[in-house]
Amino acid sequence: METLEAIKTRCSVRKFSDRPVEHDKLMTVLNAARMAPSWANLQCWRFVVVQDPATKRRISEFSYVDSFFAAKGYKTNPSQLALAEAPVVIVACAQPNQSGDMRGQQYYMTDIGLAAENLLLSAHDQGLGSVFVSIFEEKPLADLLGIPAYISIVGLFPLGYPQNESSSSSPRKPLEELVFYERWQR
Ligand SMILES: Cc1cc2nc3c(=O)[nH]c(=O)nc-3n(C[C@H](O)[C@H](O)[C@H](O)COP(=O)(O)O)c2cc1C
C-alpha cells in the first residue's frame, strides 16, 4: 500500500476477529515502530507484547478508569473489550530519561507518538487494525507486567484482524481552520 493511501484509509479498530496475528506480521509492526524518529535517536521506547488470554483480560480490567469514565457517564471504556479480545496487545512504554526535556516539554511522549503512528500504519498496511488506548491504571498494569518504576507506560495497542472490514475514518477539521501562512491569523 502506498504511504498516502495508508494514511488516508487507516482508522482506529476496536473490534477484532479471533483470527491469530501471524508472527511475521507482528514483527513487521514492531520493526516499523522501532524505525520511527526519536529525540537524538535515543529510542526511548520499549514494547511488551502480550498474547496470553488471562493477561489480556487483566489489562482490559485496568483500562476502565472510574475517575475518567464515570465522570463522563460511560459504563465502559470503548476500547476496553478490544484489549481482551484482540489476539495481541502491545504495551508501549518509554524510559523518559532517554529522551529530551526542553521548555518543560517531555519529548518521550512525542517519541512514542511517532512510533505509535508507524505501528498503526504498518498494521493497517498488512490488513490488521489497532487503536491507541491511553486510559488505564498504570500502577497495577506495571505490577502485572513487571515493568520497573523508571519506565512510563504511554499506550496500549490491541492488534488483530478487524471484525468489520468496512470501518470508516473519523472526520477531520478542514485545512483552512488549521493552517496559517506566514503569520498566525484569525
Ligand atoms: C494519544 C491518543 C490517545 C487515545 N486514547 C484512546 C483511548 O483511550 N480509547 C480509545 O478508544 N481511543 C483512543 N484514541 C483513539 C482516538 O479516539 C482516535 O484516533 C480518534 O478518534 C480519531 O479516529 P481514527 O483513529 O479512527 O482516525 C487515542 C488516540 C490518541 C492519538
Mean pLDDT: 94
Low-confidence stretches: none
Shape from CA axes?
globular
Instruction: Give the names of the bound compounds.
Output: flavin mononucleotide
The termini sit apart by 38 Å
How many structural domains in the coordinates? Answer: 1
Give the structural class: alpha+beta
Q: What is the C-level CATH assignment?
A: Alpha Beta
The CATH superfamily label reads: NADH Oxidase
Give the neighbour order of strands across the main sheet.
1-2-6-5
Largest sheet: 4 strands, antiparallel
Q: What is the string of SSEs from the N terminus onward?
A: HHEHHHEEEHEHEH
Description:
This protein has 186 residues and is an alpha+beta fold. The chain has 8 helices and 6 strands, in the order H-H-E-H-H-H-E-E-E-H-E-H-E-H. The chain has one domain (3-164): NADH Oxidase, CATH 3.40.109. It has helices at 3-9, 23-34, 53-61, 66-72, 80-85, 108-125, 138-145, 175-178; strands at residues 45-50, 88-94, 101-102, 105-106, 129-130, 152-160. The N and C termini lie far apart (38 Å). The mean pLDDT is 94.
